[in-house]
Amino acid sequence: MQIEVRRFSTCSELDAALADRLDRAIRAAAGQSGSAPPVIMLSGGHTPLPAYREVARRRPPRGGPLTVIYSDDRYVPADSDASNYCQTRPLLDALALPENQVLRIRTELPLEDAARDYERRLRALLDSGARLGVALLGLSADGHTASLFRPEQLQQSQGHLAIAVQRPDGMQGISVTPDFLANVAEPLFVVAGSGKHDAIAAFIRQDPKLIALRAVAGHARVELWLEQASELA
To answer: Which residues, in sequence order, are CB contacts of 87 under 8 Å at separation 6+?
Structure first.
């Protein structure tokens, strides 16, 4: 696997670069036509939120063929502050996409039903010939990405596009799987914050035990964008 590492001196520089990347992807999607609808995947956590807000501030094209999906979400109400979907609402409101072009995880359903429902809709998206472009992912201090935390969850995910998980923080969640991530064109890990030195080093040296790396093992190339302070011990 080729890992393209891009380092930023400050969080502000990382935020601006990520906003530019998303803005370009959204504007390119707005100009597309044909039978392969464009898709971007948003991740949760605090790191990408400033970029989401900045893209919304720039007034991106409204409507259009773009579909937005999520790497994962906590099993909480859609209007909860803990919901990744809720945290992205400023961007979604700016995009003004039809409801069927925002594939939120339906946490109003029972947990396992919500996972099956998300998997079904992801499968339909793939079957439609959609092009999965930029796919944002995080990297935590413990080396997980999306809501894939443990090796047994990777085993559980085989043959599935989405699964329900028990999170180490005691919450439940739903996550995309390596089988789904194998279909994305541009996996982009965005990392900021302290305490991630060991996880970053393991990712760069391609430690086969690292969950985040195993989640994208089918890719020939991934990108890793870092705030340089996150590499400090």
So the answer is: 44, 49, 52, 81
> One-letter amino acid identity for 212?
A
What is the separation of C-alpha 127 from the centre of its chain, rounded to a whole number of angstroms?
Answer: 20
Quick one: how many helices (H) and strands (E) in the chain? 9, 10
Q: Range of 153's domain?
A: 2-231
CB 160 within 8 A of CB 118: no
Question: Which DSSP letter does residue 1 get?
Answer: -
Write out the E strands in 177-231.
186-191, 221-227
Where does the chain show beta strands of DSSP type E?
A: 2-8, 38-42, 67-70, 72-74, 102-103, 131-137, 162-166, 172-176, 186-191, 221-227
What CA–CA distances, in Å, run from 166 to 41, 42, 130? 22, 21, 30
Which pair of tokens denotes residue 155? 């085993």
Residue 29 CA to its chain's centroid (Å): 18
Angle among Cα 70, 115, 181 to the nearest 5 degrees reads 45
CATH of the domain at 74: 3.40.50.1360
Instruction: Label residue 35 by pLDDT band (50, 70, 90).
Output: low
Taking the complete model, does pTM exceed 0.85, yes or no? yes
Task: Quote the percentage of the chain above a pLDDT of 70.
Answer: 98
Number of domains in the chain: 1
Per-residue pLDDT tens digits for 44-81: 889 999 999 999 999 998 888 999 999 999 999 999 99
